[in-house]
Amino acid sequence: MTRPQLGLVIVGLGASLAPLDIAVNVALPAITGHFKLALGDVQWLVICYVLVYGSLMLVAGKLGDLFGHRLLFRIGLLISAVGCAACAAAPDWPLFLWARAGQGIGTALALACTPALATSLFPESQRTQALAGFASAMALAAAVGPFLGGVLVEVWGWPAVYWIRVPIALVTLALTGLLPSPKPDARPFDALGAVLLASCMSTLLLSLVLSQRREVAGAWALGLLAIALILLALYVRHASRVPEPIIRPALFADARFAVPNVLNVLANLAGFSILLLTPYYLTNVLKLTAVGSGIVLAMAFAGSLAGAPLSAFLVRRIGQRPTVFAGVAFVGLGLLPLGFTGIDTPVLLVASLLVLEGIGQGLLTVAYTDIVTATLPPRDRGVAGSLSLLTRTLGVVGGASVLTALQARGAEGFAGMAGFLAGYRFAFVAAGGGLLVALLLSCLWPRVWSSRDGAPRTR
Question: Could you tell me which of 39, 49, 318, 319 has the fewest CB atoms within 10 Å of its CB?
Fold first, then answer.
């Protein structure tokens, strides 16, 4: 593009539809009351959405590589607009859940291709800067989401958190004509592989979700996990026999590729503790108002905003892999001290640790996505971008399960606020400390973090 910055704004605006879904969290009490739901039932609002877009992410990225990233982006924006409108206007709970599933399809199609679109706007020598701009747009939308949700629910009611995204999707759709449109690729689409991979991802995500629901027997979660592993084995076998699989399993046989992917999952799993547990700590222990809690929580996203361009700078100076290592270390070092906070901890100290964790996430997101993008061939940029988003999703969904269990384990033997605080501390020590231990163990493969990476070949 002659004006790539404008193109990046368009891509970022469309990609913001996904992190803006955080606003729905603010609307959950109102949605529960409107549909007269039990507290546990409202979780299906999140489950339907995450299961659909998480399971379709890689397939959507591959479709973008074959038929054009802009085309998939446009289709995803249109489906997202229809899905959001259907959620806002749903007359009953079953139709609302179907609308959420439709919204998940739109998110998968639109979001999977956004990293590839962002990098296509700039010369290859500016790939990392393009990814940093994209990551900054996502972090900004995530920071705005809770505040926007609160204002919308207060002024117009819960449907507004869905209505607000309809014009955003449609305006972005109208502007997509300014984005580049490459010719379709003549490579074949592996339909069977797509079904196997999507089924594996949806089953895996569902097993993680059900593992945190006390009313569901643990055998169901274990059974689904076993099915997911069987489907994965079938996909690996199938992918070795076709010329153009969705993604080549052999990539993960190389520790230099597999380890950063695993650590991105673990860093997002550990980092989800902030969104899952810290709001209760700020409100119930430190006695902050809702506005005060929102401001403190926003510090993590502010850190990500600062970390993204810093990551692009460091990748140019020291390489992708040392930057990823530093990002994971910052996430762990931001989370671990939160396990030693209490009722007398200064709010400024908590906010500072959230900023540190956010900087780590910003460093990690950009440099890790750059590794994946550099490893896969240019014709698979959609798969590369969708893989980086999928590992984040796996971390968040896994975090909801693991961190809930850790908090409950730490609270055993205590009651009331003392029980919550004990569980909160235990969860953060385990999350931050466990992530740092995993990072140290990864040093058993020293080549993983060597500064010799794919970046110099394109600069």
Answer: 39
